[in-house]
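Dig into what follows:
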Amino acid sequence: MLGTLNPIDLGIIFIYFAIILWIAWWVSKGGGKNKGDRDSKDYFLAGKTAGWFVIGASLFASNIGSEIIIGVSGAGARAEMPQANFEILAALILILLGWVFVPFYLRTGVYTMPEFLEIRYSKACRNYLSVVSVLAYIITKISLIIFAGALVFETMGVSFWTGAIITIVATGFYTILGGLRAVIYTDMIQTFILLAGTIAVTYFGLAQIGGWDAMMDTLTMASEKPGNPKASQFFNLWRPSSDTDYPWTGMLFGAPILGVWYWCTDQFIVQRTLSAKDISNARKGTLFAGFLKLLPVFIFFIPGVIAFALSQKGMLNFTLDNPDHALPAMINGFLPIGLKGLAISGLLAALMSSLSSAFNSSSTLITFDFYKQYKPHATEKELVWVGQIATLILVIMSFLWIPFMKTLMGGGLFHYLQSVQAYISPPIAAVFLFGLFFKWINARGAIMALWTGFFLGMMRLVTEYLTKEGIIELTQGSLLQVMLEINFLHYAIYLFIFSVVILMLFSQLGRPKSDDLLRLVTFNKKEMKLKFTWSLDVFLTLLLICCVLLLWIIFSPLGIA
Protein backbone atom coordinates (compact mmCIF):
# COMPACT_ATOMS: atom_id res chain seq x y z
CA MET A 1 0.00 0.00 0.00
CA LEU A 2 2.79 2.41 0.86
CA GLY A 3 4.32 1.72 -2.50
CA THR A 4 1.10 2.77 -4.24
CA LEU A 5 0.31 5.75 -2.02
CA ASN A 6 0.08 9.13 -3.66
CA PRO A 7 2.93 11.52 -2.78
CA ILE A 8 0.35 13.74 -1.04
CA ASP A 9 -0.61 10.87 1.31
CA LEU A 10 3.03 10.09 1.98
CA GLY A 11 3.63 13.77 2.68
CA ILE A 12 0.78 13.85 5.21
CA ILE A 13 2.21 10.81 7.02
CA PHE A 14 5.64 12.44 7.04
CA ILE A 15 4.17 15.71 8.41
CA TYR A 16 2.39 13.71 11.13
CA PHE A 17 5.65 12.12 12.29
CA ALA A 18 7.43 15.48 12.10
CA ILE A 19 4.78 17.21 14.26
CA ILE A 20 4.83 14.47 16.91
CA LEU A 21 8.61 14.42 17.15
CA TRP A 22 8.76 18.23 17.22
CA ILE A 23 6.29 18.35 20.12
CA ALA A 24 8.41 15.83 22.01
CA TRP A 25 11.54 17.89 21.36
CA TRP A 26 9.74 21.11 22.40
CA VAL A 27 8.56 19.50 25.63
CA SER A 28 12.00 18.10 26.39
CA LYS A 29 13.43 21.64 26.10
CA GLY A 30 10.96 22.98 28.63
CA GLY A 31 7.81 23.37 26.57
CA GLY A 32 7.06 26.78 28.02
CA LYS A 33 7.02 25.26 31.50
CA ASN A 34 10.03 23.86 33.27
CA LYS A 35 13.48 24.74 32.08
CA GLY A 36 16.75 23.04 32.84
CA ASP A 37 17.18 19.62 34.43
CA ARG A 38 13.93 17.80 35.07
CA ASP A 39 13.12 16.12 38.35
CA SER A 40 11.09 12.92 38.70
CA LYS A 41 7.79 14.82 39.18
CA ASP A 42 8.27 16.62 35.87
CA TYR A 43 9.35 13.51 33.95
CA PHE A 44 6.82 11.01 35.35
CA LEU A 45 3.86 13.28 36.28
CA ALA A 46 4.32 16.18 33.82
CA GLY A 47 5.07 18.51 36.73
CA LYS A 48 1.45 18.08 37.97
CA THR A 49 0.32 20.99 35.79
CA ALA A 50 -2.01 19.27 33.28
CA GLY A 51 -5.47 20.75 32.59
CA TRP A 52 -8.75 18.91 32.01
CA PHE A 53 -8.68 19.01 28.19
CA VAL A 54 -5.19 17.54 27.94
CA ILE A 55 -5.99 14.88 30.55
CA GLY A 56 -9.23 13.83 28.85
CA ALA A 57 -7.66 13.66 25.39
CA SER A 58 -4.71 11.69 26.77
CA LEU A 59 -6.99 9.23 28.60
CA PHE A 60 -8.87 8.60 25.35
CA ALA A 61 -5.82 8.39 23.08
CA SER A 62 -3.90 6.16 25.50
CA ASN A 63 -6.79 3.73 25.65
CA ILE A 64 -7.67 3.80 21.93
CA GLY A 65 -4.76 1.91 20.48
CA SER A 66 -4.61 0.11 17.16
CA GLU A 67 -5.76 -3.05 18.95
CA ILE A 68 -8.99 -1.29 19.99
CA ILE A 69 -9.65 0.25 16.57
CA ILE A 70 -8.86 -2.90 14.61
CA GLY A 71 -10.49 -5.18 17.18
CA VAL A 72 -13.76 -3.21 17.46
CA SER A 73 -14.06 -2.78 13.69
CA GLY A 74 -13.40 -6.52 13.33
CA ALA A 75 -16.20 -7.14 15.83
CA GLY A 76 -18.46 -4.97 13.67
CA ALA A 77 -17.69 -7.12 10.64
CA ARG A 78 -18.52 -10.25 12.67
CA ALA A 79 -21.80 -8.77 13.97
CA GLU A 80 -20.50 -8.91 17.52
CA MET A 81 -21.82 -5.56 18.70
CA PRO A 82 -21.84 -6.56 22.39
CA GLN A 83 -18.09 -5.95 22.28
CA ALA A 84 -18.88 -2.25 21.81
CA ASN A 85 -20.41 -2.33 25.29
CA PHE A 86 -16.90 -2.32 26.73
CA GLU A 87 -16.44 1.13 25.18
CA ILE A 88 -19.82 2.45 26.37
CA LEU A 89 -19.41 1.07 29.90
CA ALA A 90 -16.04 2.81 30.11
CA ALA A 91 -17.89 6.14 30.18
CA LEU A 92 -19.64 5.13 33.41
CA ILE A 93 -16.46 3.76 34.98
CA LEU A 94 -14.67 7.04 34.19
CA ILE A 95 -17.32 8.78 36.30
CA LEU A 96 -16.31 6.47 39.15
CA LEU A 97 -12.64 7.34 38.58
CA GLY A 98 -13.29 11.08 38.74
CA TRP A 99 -15.67 11.13 41.70
CA VAL A 100 -14.48 8.23 43.89
CA PHE A 101 -10.85 7.35 43.22
CA VAL A 102 -9.09 10.51 42.04
CA PRO A 103 -9.54 12.51 45.27
CA PHE A 104 -7.71 9.79 47.23
CA TYR A 105 -4.90 9.50 44.69
CA LEU A 106 -4.26 13.24 44.57
CA ARG A 107 -4.40 13.91 48.30
CA THR A 108 -1.90 11.12 49.03
CA GLY A 109 0.49 12.49 46.38
CA VAL A 110 1.43 9.04 45.08
CA TYR A 111 3.33 8.41 41.85
CA THR A 112 2.09 4.84 41.31
CA MET A 113 -0.91 2.67 42.15
CA PRO A 114 1.23 0.11 44.02
CA GLU A 115 2.47 3.00 46.17
CA PHE A 116 -1.14 3.80 47.07
CA LEU A 117 -1.75 0.14 47.92
CA GLU A 118 1.20 0.20 50.31
CA ILE A 119 -0.24 3.23 52.13
CA ARG A 120 -3.65 1.52 52.40
CA TYR A 121 -2.43 -2.00 53.20
CA SER A 122 1.22 -3.09 53.22
CA LYS A 123 4.48 -3.34 51.29
CA ALA A 124 3.61 -6.93 50.31
CA CYS A 125 0.48 -5.68 48.53
CA ARG A 126 2.57 -3.02 46.79
CA ASN A 127 5.07 -5.62 45.56
CA TYR A 128 2.26 -7.86 44.29
CA LEU A 129 0.62 -5.10 42.25
CA SER A 130 3.97 -3.89 40.89
CA VAL A 131 4.86 -7.32 39.50
CA VAL A 132 1.37 -8.12 38.20
CA SER A 133 1.04 -4.70 36.55
CA VAL A 134 4.31 -5.03 34.65
CA LEU A 135 3.35 -8.55 33.53
CA ALA A 136 -0.10 -7.26 32.51
CA TYR A 137 1.49 -4.55 30.37
CA ILE A 138 3.45 -7.21 28.52
CA ILE A 139 0.51 -9.61 28.11
CA THR A 140 -2.36 -7.20 27.43
CA LYS A 141 -0.78 -3.97 26.25
CA ILE A 142 2.67 -3.61 24.72
CA SER A 143 2.83 -6.91 22.82
CA LEU A 144 -0.80 -6.56 21.70
CA ILE A 145 -0.20 -3.01 20.48
CA ILE A 146 2.84 -4.21 18.52
CA PHE A 147 0.81 -7.08 17.05
CA ALA A 148 -2.08 -4.79 16.07
CA GLY A 149 0.37 -2.35 14.53
CA ALA A 150 1.78 -5.18 12.46
CA LEU A 151 -1.68 -5.83 11.00
CA VAL A 152 -1.89 -2.16 10.00
CA PHE A 153 1.51 -2.24 8.31
CA GLU A 154 0.81 -5.56 6.56
CA THR A 155 -2.17 -3.97 4.80
CA MET A 156 0.23 -1.24 3.64
CA GLY A 157 2.60 -3.76 2.11
CA VAL A 158 5.20 -3.39 4.88
CA SER A 159 6.50 -6.48 6.65
CA PHE A 160 5.53 -7.18 10.26
CA TRP A 161 8.89 -6.51 11.86
CA THR A 162 9.87 -3.56 9.67
CA GLY A 163 6.68 -1.64 10.44
CA ALA A 164 6.66 -2.57 14.13
CA ILE A 165 10.30 -1.61 14.65
CA ILE A 166 9.83 1.77 12.91
CA THR A 167 6.90 2.60 15.18
CA ILE A 168 8.60 1.29 18.34
CA VAL A 169 11.76 3.28 17.66
CA ALA A 170 9.84 6.51 16.94
CA THR A 171 7.54 6.06 19.92
CA GLY A 172 10.31 5.04 22.28
CA PHE A 173 12.36 8.04 21.16
CA TYR A 174 9.80 10.70 22.05
CA THR A 175 8.70 8.89 25.23
CA ILE A 176 12.27 8.74 26.51
CA LEU A 177 12.91 12.29 25.38
CA GLY A 178 9.99 14.03 27.08
CA GLY A 179 8.46 11.67 29.65
CA LEU A 180 4.77 11.93 30.57
CA ARG A 181 4.55 15.57 29.45
CA ALA A 182 5.56 14.50 25.93
CA VAL A 183 3.12 11.59 26.07
CA ILE A 184 0.06 13.63 27.08
CA TYR A 185 0.76 16.52 24.70
CA THR A 186 1.35 14.21 21.74
CA ASP A 187 -1.76 12.26 22.80
CA MET A 188 -3.80 15.46 22.55
CA ILE A 189 -2.69 16.04 18.94
CA GLN A 190 -3.07 12.36 18.06
CA THR A 191 -6.65 12.34 19.38
CA PHE A 192 -7.71 14.84 16.71
CA ILE A 193 -5.81 12.98 13.98
CA LEU A 194 -7.36 9.70 15.08
CA LEU A 195 -10.90 11.09 15.14
CA ALA A 196 -10.52 12.83 11.79
CA GLY A 197 -9.17 9.72 10.10
CA THR A 198 -11.80 7.30 11.41
CA ILE A 199 -14.68 9.72 10.78
CA ALA A 200 -13.48 10.00 7.17
CA VAL A 201 -13.48 6.21 6.82
CA THR A 202 -17.05 6.00 8.16
CA TYR A 203 -18.34 8.78 5.91
CA PHE A 204 -16.76 7.61 2.65
CA GLY A 205 -17.53 3.94 3.30
CA LEU A 206 -21.19 4.73 3.88
CA ALA A 207 -21.24 6.95 0.79
CA GLN A 208 -19.71 4.16 -1.29
CA ILE A 209 -22.44 1.68 -0.42
CA GLY A 210 -25.19 4.26 -1.00
CA GLY A 211 -26.11 5.39 2.50
CA TRP A 212 -27.52 3.86 5.66
CA ASP A 213 -30.68 2.39 4.09
CA ALA A 214 -28.69 0.76 1.31
CA MET A 215 -26.36 -0.78 3.89
CA MET A 216 -29.31 -2.17 5.89
CA ASP A 217 -30.83 -3.64 2.69
CA THR A 218 -27.50 -5.30 1.90
CA LEU A 219 -27.29 -6.76 5.42
CA THR A 220 -30.84 -8.10 5.11
CA MET A 221 -30.08 -9.81 1.78
CA ALA A 222 -26.78 -11.14 3.09
CA SER A 223 -28.56 -12.68 6.10
CA GLU A 224 -30.32 -15.09 3.72
CA LYS A 225 -26.99 -16.73 2.88
CA PRO A 226 -26.06 -19.70 5.10
CA GLY A 227 -23.65 -18.78 7.87
CA ASN A 228 -24.26 -15.02 7.75
CA PRO A 229 -25.74 -13.23 10.78
CA LYS A 230 -29.14 -11.56 10.81
CA ALA A 231 -29.21 -7.86 10.01
CA SER A 232 -30.60 -7.00 13.48
CA GLN A 233 -27.66 -8.80 15.12
CA PHE A 234 -25.27 -6.12 13.82
CA PHE A 235 -26.90 -3.43 15.98
CA ASN A 236 -27.88 -5.25 19.16
CA LEU A 237 -25.73 -4.66 22.24
CA TRP A 238 -27.58 -7.28 24.25
CA ARG A 239 -27.60 -11.07 23.98
CA PRO A 240 -29.35 -13.73 26.10
CA SER A 241 -27.74 -14.80 29.38
CA SER A 242 -27.16 -18.21 27.76
CA ASP A 243 -24.95 -16.72 25.01
CA THR A 244 -21.51 -18.33 25.11
CA ASP A 245 -19.58 -15.20 24.15
CA TYR A 246 -21.26 -12.01 25.39
CA PRO A 247 -24.27 -12.70 27.65
CA TRP A 248 -26.07 -9.58 28.92
CA THR A 249 -25.48 -10.71 32.50
CA GLY A 250 -21.74 -10.84 31.89
CA MET A 251 -21.78 -7.47 30.18
CA LEU A 252 -23.81 -5.70 32.86
CA PHE A 253 -22.13 -7.26 35.91
CA GLY A 254 -18.81 -8.73 34.73
CA ALA A 255 -17.51 -6.07 32.36
CA PRO A 256 -17.63 -3.29 35.01
CA ILE A 257 -15.25 -5.35 37.16
CA LEU A 258 -12.71 -5.25 34.33
CA GLY A 259 -13.48 -1.55 33.97
CA VAL A 260 -12.80 -0.70 37.61
CA TRP A 261 -9.40 -2.38 37.41
CA TYR A 262 -8.46 -0.82 34.07
CA TRP A 263 -9.86 2.70 34.41
CA CYS A 264 -9.62 3.26 38.18
CA THR A 265 -6.59 1.30 39.46
CA ASP A 266 -4.26 0.70 36.51
CA GLN A 267 -1.13 2.85 36.28
CA PHE A 268 -1.50 2.97 32.49
CA ILE A 269 -4.65 5.07 32.81
CA VAL A 270 -4.55 6.66 36.26
CA GLN A 271 -1.13 8.26 35.71
CA ARG A 272 -2.80 10.86 33.47
CA THR A 273 -5.05 12.02 36.31
CA LEU A 274 -2.08 12.12 38.70
CA SER A 275 -0.60 14.82 36.46
CA ALA A 276 -3.59 17.14 37.04
CA LYS A 277 -3.04 20.55 38.62
CA ASP A 278 -6.01 19.92 40.97
CA ILE A 279 -9.00 17.64 41.62
CA SER A 280 -11.37 19.77 39.52
CA ASN A 281 -9.23 19.45 36.40
CA ALA A 282 -8.72 15.73 37.01
CA ARG A 283 -12.47 15.13 37.35
CA LYS A 284 -13.39 17.21 34.30
CA GLY A 285 -10.71 15.35 32.38
CA THR A 286 -12.27 11.98 33.24
CA LEU A 287 -15.73 13.24 32.23
CA PHE A 288 -14.37 14.60 28.92
CA ALA A 289 -12.77 11.20 28.27
CA GLY A 290 -16.13 9.57 29.11
CA PHE A 291 -17.88 11.52 26.35
CA LEU A 292 -15.10 10.63 23.91
CA LYS A 293 -15.54 6.94 24.78
CA LEU A 294 -19.04 7.03 23.30
CA LEU A 295 -17.60 7.70 19.83
CA PRO A 296 -16.03 4.26 19.06
CA VAL A 297 -19.49 2.78 18.45
CA PHE A 298 -19.88 5.12 15.48
CA ILE A 299 -16.33 5.50 14.16
CA PHE A 300 -14.83 2.04 14.87
CA PHE A 301 -17.68 -0.48 15.06
CA ILE A 302 -19.92 0.80 12.25
CA PRO A 303 -17.04 0.90 9.70
CA GLY A 304 -16.66 -2.82 10.36
CA VAL A 305 -20.33 -3.34 9.55
CA ILE A 306 -19.92 -1.25 6.40
CA ALA A 307 -16.90 -3.37 5.41
CA PHE A 308 -19.00 -6.55 5.75
CA ALA A 309 -21.78 -5.05 3.63
CA LEU A 310 -19.32 -3.89 0.95
CA SER A 311 -17.71 -7.34 0.83
CA GLN A 312 -21.14 -8.94 0.33
CA LYS A 313 -21.66 -6.71 -2.73
CA GLY A 314 -18.19 -7.57 -4.05
CA MET A 315 -17.04 -3.97 -3.64
CA LEU A 316 -14.29 -4.64 -1.08
CA ASN A 317 -11.48 -7.17 -1.03
CA PHE A 318 -12.20 -8.40 2.47
CA THR A 319 -13.34 -11.69 4.03
CA LEU A 320 -14.41 -12.82 7.49
CA ASP A 321 -11.45 -15.19 7.52
CA ASN A 322 -9.55 -12.22 8.92
CA PRO A 323 -12.13 -9.71 10.22
CA ASP A 324 -9.49 -7.62 12.00
CA HIS A 325 -8.46 -6.34 8.54
CA ALA A 326 -11.84 -4.59 8.10
CA LEU A 327 -10.78 -1.02 8.80
CA PRO A 328 -7.40 -1.16 6.99
CA ALA A 329 -9.22 -2.62 3.96
CA MET A 330 -11.66 0.30 4.04
CA ILE A 331 -8.81 2.81 4.14
CA ASN A 332 -7.10 1.13 1.24
CA GLY A 333 -10.29 0.74 -0.78
CA PHE A 334 -12.27 3.96 -0.69
CA LEU A 335 -10.57 6.98 0.78
CA PRO A 336 -9.54 9.71 -1.66
CA ILE A 337 -6.04 11.16 -1.97
CA GLY A 338 -5.06 13.09 1.13
CA LEU A 339 -7.64 11.51 3.40
CA LYS A 340 -5.98 8.12 2.96
CA GLY A 341 -2.78 9.56 4.38
CA LEU A 342 -4.78 11.16 7.20
CA ALA A 343 -6.49 7.85 8.07
CA ILE A 344 -3.18 5.97 8.05
CA SER A 345 -1.78 8.69 10.30
CA GLY A 346 -4.81 8.14 12.56
CA LEU A 347 -4.02 4.43 12.90
CA LEU A 348 -0.38 5.25 13.54
CA ALA A 349 -1.47 7.85 16.09
CA ALA A 350 -3.54 5.24 17.92
CA LEU A 351 -0.65 2.80 17.85
CA MET A 352 1.94 5.32 19.03
CA SER A 353 -0.20 6.98 21.73
CA SER A 354 -1.02 3.64 23.38
CA LEU A 355 2.54 2.40 23.04
CA SER A 356 4.03 5.59 24.47
CA SER A 357 1.60 5.43 27.41
CA ALA A 358 2.50 1.81 28.08
CA PHE A 359 6.19 2.65 27.91
CA ASN A 360 5.86 5.60 30.28
CA SER A 361 3.63 3.82 32.79
CA SER A 362 5.78 0.70 32.92
CA SER A 363 8.96 2.76 33.30
CA THR A 364 7.30 4.65 36.17
CA LEU A 365 6.50 1.37 37.92
CA ILE A 366 9.99 -0.02 37.37
CA THR A 367 11.59 3.21 38.60
CA PHE A 368 9.52 3.82 41.75
CA ASP A 369 8.34 0.34 42.73
CA PHE A 370 11.53 -1.54 41.99
CA TYR A 371 14.58 0.70 41.63
CA LYS A 372 13.72 3.32 44.26
CA GLN A 373 12.74 0.56 46.69
CA TYR A 374 16.17 -0.99 46.13
CA LYS A 375 17.96 2.38 46.28
CA PRO A 376 15.87 4.81 48.41
CA HIS A 377 18.38 7.66 48.20
CA ALA A 378 18.68 7.72 44.41
CA THR A 379 19.04 11.23 42.98
CA GLU A 380 16.34 12.85 40.83
CA LYS A 381 18.61 12.67 37.79
CA GLU A 382 19.24 9.01 38.44
CA LEU A 383 15.50 8.26 38.66
CA VAL A 384 14.89 9.96 35.32
CA TRP A 385 17.75 7.98 33.77
CA VAL A 386 16.37 4.67 35.08
CA GLY A 387 12.96 5.59 33.69
CA GLN A 388 14.47 6.30 30.28
CA ILE A 389 16.17 2.89 29.95
CA ALA A 390 13.46 0.74 31.59
CA THR A 391 11.31 0.45 28.44
CA LEU A 392 13.94 -1.59 26.58
CA ILE A 393 13.40 -4.59 28.85
CA LEU A 394 9.64 -4.38 28.38
CA VAL A 395 9.94 -4.25 24.59
CA ILE A 396 12.11 -7.38 24.50
CA MET A 397 9.76 -9.31 26.80
CA SER A 398 6.74 -8.21 24.77
CA PHE A 399 8.26 -9.49 21.54
CA LEU A 400 8.84 -12.85 23.27
CA TRP A 401 5.17 -13.04 24.32
CA ILE A 402 3.73 -12.53 20.80
CA PRO A 403 3.87 -16.26 19.78
CA PHE A 404 1.85 -17.22 22.88
CA MET A 405 -0.61 -14.41 22.22
CA LYS A 406 -1.36 -15.72 18.72
CA THR A 407 -2.51 -19.02 20.23
CA LEU A 408 -4.87 -17.35 22.71
CA MET A 409 -6.40 -15.01 20.09
CA GLY A 410 -9.08 -17.37 18.84
CA GLY A 411 -11.81 -14.72 19.01
CA GLY A 412 -9.94 -11.75 17.62
CA LEU A 413 -7.85 -8.98 19.10
CA PHE A 414 -10.50 -7.34 21.23
CA HIS A 415 -11.83 -10.62 22.63
CA TYR A 416 -8.30 -11.65 23.57
CA LEU A 417 -7.69 -8.35 25.36
CA GLN A 418 -10.88 -8.50 27.41
CA SER A 419 -10.64 -12.20 28.28
CA VAL A 420 -7.09 -11.92 29.65
CA GLN A 421 -8.12 -8.85 31.67
CA ALA A 422 -11.03 -10.86 33.09
CA TYR A 423 -8.54 -13.26 34.66
CA ILE A 424 -6.29 -10.54 36.14
CA SER A 425 -8.62 -7.77 37.28
CA PRO A 426 -11.18 -9.12 39.81
CA PRO A 427 -8.95 -9.47 42.92
CA ILE A 428 -7.28 -6.09 42.29
CA ALA A 429 -10.63 -4.35 41.76
CA ALA A 430 -11.98 -5.91 44.98
CA VAL A 431 -9.00 -4.85 47.09
CA PHE A 432 -9.04 -1.24 45.83
CA LEU A 433 -12.81 -0.72 45.88
CA PHE A 434 -13.62 -2.28 49.25
CA GLY A 435 -10.50 -0.81 50.81
CA LEU A 436 -11.81 2.71 50.24
CA PHE A 437 -15.12 2.09 52.03
CA PHE A 438 -14.28 -0.30 54.88
CA LYS A 439 -11.50 0.63 57.31
CA TRP A 440 -11.56 -2.77 59.02
CA ILE A 441 -10.33 -4.51 55.85
CA ASN A 442 -6.61 -5.03 56.36
CA ALA A 443 -3.36 -6.19 54.77
CA ARG A 444 -3.81 -9.86 55.66
CA GLY A 445 -7.15 -10.03 53.88
CA ALA A 446 -5.84 -8.03 50.93
CA ILE A 447 -2.76 -10.14 50.23
CA MET A 448 -4.73 -13.40 50.56
CA ALA A 449 -7.41 -12.11 48.16
CA LEU A 450 -4.78 -10.93 45.67
CA TRP A 451 -2.82 -14.18 45.59
CA THR A 452 -5.74 -16.63 45.63
CA GLY A 453 -7.53 -14.59 42.97
CA PHE A 454 -4.38 -14.45 40.87
CA PHE A 455 -3.94 -18.24 41.16
CA LEU A 456 -7.50 -18.95 39.98
CA GLY A 457 -7.19 -16.43 37.15
CA MET A 458 -3.89 -17.81 35.92
CA MET A 459 -5.17 -21.38 36.23
CA ARG A 460 -7.93 -20.51 33.78
CA LEU A 461 -5.53 -18.68 31.41
CA VAL A 462 -2.91 -21.46 31.39
CA THR A 463 -5.52 -24.21 30.99
CA GLU A 464 -7.09 -22.33 28.09
CA TYR A 465 -3.70 -22.03 26.37
CA LEU A 466 -2.72 -25.67 26.91
CA THR A 467 -6.02 -27.03 25.61
CA LYS A 468 -5.97 -24.80 22.51
CA GLU A 469 -2.43 -25.97 21.76
CA GLY A 470 -3.48 -29.61 22.20
CA ILE A 471 -0.88 -30.10 24.93
CA ILE A 472 -3.50 -31.40 27.37
CA GLU A 473 -6.91 -32.98 26.86
CA LEU A 474 -9.46 -32.46 29.60
CA THR A 475 -11.86 -35.16 30.73
CA GLN A 476 -15.50 -34.29 30.12
CA GLY A 477 -17.12 -33.27 33.39
CA SER A 478 -13.82 -32.65 35.18
CA LEU A 479 -13.38 -29.55 37.34
CA LEU A 480 -11.01 -27.92 34.82
CA GLN A 481 -13.39 -28.69 31.94
CA VAL A 482 -16.32 -27.11 33.81
CA MET A 483 -14.13 -24.09 34.61
CA LEU A 484 -13.24 -23.61 30.94
CA GLU A 485 -16.88 -23.79 29.86
CA ILE A 486 -17.80 -20.79 32.03
CA ASN A 487 -18.08 -17.60 29.98
CA PHE A 488 -15.08 -15.38 30.67
CA LEU A 489 -17.25 -12.48 31.90
CA HIS A 490 -19.19 -14.77 34.22
CA TYR A 491 -15.86 -16.15 35.41
CA ALA A 492 -14.82 -12.57 36.27
CA ILE A 493 -17.99 -12.18 38.39
CA TYR A 494 -17.35 -15.44 40.28
CA LEU A 495 -13.69 -14.55 40.76
CA PHE A 496 -14.62 -11.09 42.07
CA ILE A 497 -17.14 -12.53 44.57
CA PHE A 498 -14.60 -15.14 45.69
CA SER A 499 -11.94 -12.43 46.14
CA VAL A 500 -14.33 -10.28 48.21
CA VAL A 501 -15.19 -13.25 50.46
CA ILE A 502 -11.48 -14.04 51.01
CA LEU A 503 -10.76 -10.34 51.58
CA MET A 504 -13.37 -10.09 54.31
CA LEU A 505 -12.76 -13.47 55.99
CA PHE A 506 -9.01 -13.06 56.37
CA SER A 507 -9.36 -9.41 57.39
CA GLN A 508 -11.23 -10.71 60.45
CA LEU A 509 -8.06 -12.59 61.44
CA GLY A 510 -5.84 -9.50 61.50
CA ARG A 511 -5.84 -5.99 62.88
CA PRO A 512 -6.78 -2.95 60.79
CA LYS A 513 -4.48 0.06 60.60
CA SER A 514 -5.17 2.96 62.93
CA ASP A 515 -7.68 5.62 61.85
CA ASP A 516 -4.85 8.12 61.67
CA LEU A 517 -2.93 6.03 59.13
CA LEU A 518 -6.08 5.42 57.09
CA ARG A 519 -7.22 9.05 57.10
CA LEU A 520 -5.99 9.80 53.56
CA VAL A 521 -6.93 6.48 51.93
CA THR A 522 -10.47 5.73 53.16
CA PHE A 523 -13.81 7.52 53.30
CA ASN A 524 -14.70 9.12 56.60
CA LYS A 525 -18.24 9.53 57.93
CA LYS A 526 -18.60 13.06 56.60
CA GLU A 527 -17.54 12.01 53.08
CA MET A 528 -19.99 9.09 53.14
CA LYS A 529 -22.94 11.47 53.67
CA LEU A 530 -24.15 12.45 50.22
CA LYS A 531 -24.84 16.17 49.84
CA PHE A 532 -26.19 17.22 46.45
CA THR A 533 -24.71 20.49 45.25
CA TRP A 534 -25.42 21.63 41.71
CA SER A 535 -22.25 22.28 39.69
CA LEU A 536 -20.86 21.93 36.18
CA ASP A 537 -19.25 18.60 37.14
CA VAL A 538 -22.62 17.27 38.36
CA PHE A 539 -24.38 18.44 35.18
CA LEU A 540 -21.76 16.80 32.94
CA THR A 541 -21.97 13.59 34.96
CA LEU A 542 -25.76 13.38 34.64
CA LEU A 543 -25.56 14.22 30.93
CA LEU A 544 -22.99 11.46 30.37
CA ILE A 545 -25.18 8.91 32.19
CA CYS A 546 -28.16 9.93 30.01
CA CYS A 547 -26.06 9.51 26.85
CA VAL A 548 -25.06 5.98 27.88
CA LEU A 549 -28.68 5.02 28.61
CA LEU A 550 -29.75 6.47 25.26
CA LEU A 551 -27.16 4.38 23.37
CA TRP A 552 -28.24 1.26 25.25
CA ILE A 553 -31.82 1.85 24.08
CA ILE A 554 -30.96 2.79 20.48
CA PHE A 555 -28.80 -0.30 19.96
CA SER A 556 -31.28 -2.80 21.38
CA PRO A 557 -34.49 -4.56 20.27
CA LEU A 558 -36.28 -1.40 21.46
CA GLY A 559 -34.28 0.64 18.93
CA ILE A 560 -32.78 -0.07 15.52
CA ALA A 561 -32.11 -3.74 16.32
